[in-house]
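Protein chain data
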Amino acid sequence: MRIMIAAAGSRGDVAPYTGLGAELHRAGYDVALAATDAFAPLAHEAGLEFRSLPADTRARGDVAGKRGLMRTAAAFVTELGQGFADAVDQGADLLLLSTTTAPLGWHIAEATGTPSLGVYLQPTAPTGDFPPVVTGSRSLGRLANRATGRFALRMADRVYAQAVTQLRHRLALPPASPAEARRRRERANWPILHGFSTALVPRPSDWRPGLDVVGNWWPHRDPAERLPSELEDFLSAGPRPVFIGFGSMASGDGERLSEVAVRALRRAGLRGILQAGSAHLAADGDDVLTIGDVPHTLLFPRLAAVVHHAGAGTSAAALRAGVPAVPVPVTADQPFWATRLAALGAATDPIPFRSLTAERLADSLHQVVKRQSHSRAAAEAAQHMATEGGARQTLRAIRQLTEG
């Protein structure tokens, strides 16, 4: 059977599917990852076929504010829709669709008769348990949470409107709006597996049938990979350091962030590792080291704390390592994950990116390192996550879907 996983966005939106794809490949499936060209190396390293999707994701880290995010997202998915069908034309017996690609993939599945399954990294279905992930707001109460959740879906429908119109025309399908397609899937209880931990987001009891939380899908990693020797030397040279990184966020803000990070570390009396990322963080000194990309699974368990942008993947990686965090959310779903980490007790209260100062960061670092409650909560979450098998449960769902 040929399975195509379609994902689009930043690295954190794509990398988890390399681990899922590798697990499915080991189970005997032919697996292709369809993503934008920047992620071809990730697919090949995981032993997966790569299929190119159009659209440029490089500017997404620069976006701040909900209006700017909506405009950028609409342009992104319209471009994405242009080449989506080409990837499926190369052959697929089952489509695994991410949060970003599902509103396009539904129409291809309709046109080709190909079965499909949602594999989401964020909870998008309305619930009374929490507000929609894109609002970043505090809970408004059960009724209001559900109402804002439905409103968020309508806003997402607007983002996809032009792309869906063009895609259905190309596929010779009758006109149908994104909202119509979504409601049709909901009525059919279209199955969606959510690749995050129930330690962070337990399955809401008011979700419809077909929506399940299965645990994280972890990015593929070569078992032979090791940390760079310079990093090993730094880790061995003193007390556990603090990691500070913003992933694909904060492009162009590197000089300010580097200064804030170093001042905060020294104010808190801590050693630090800065990950360059899209912001290009950089600093020198006996008490600080700048690194490039390294596997979180190798580095995070050896840290005192992690300061990060609260992306879904980094949030989960820190929890998996049992390491407490200081979340500094920038945009999109990051405030949601930051709030969940803090509610769990595994992180300090979030520091909004625009409010980040050396003083605030130092205070949070002192709190997260000195208070054992944060470390205990992170360790308990790590134990819970170790019992979950996201890829294994996904394999089981695929077999049920395709073999009856």
User: Anything to note?
Assistant: Residues 83 and 317 are 32 Å apart (CA to CA). Residues 58-64 have pLDDT under 50 and may be disordered.
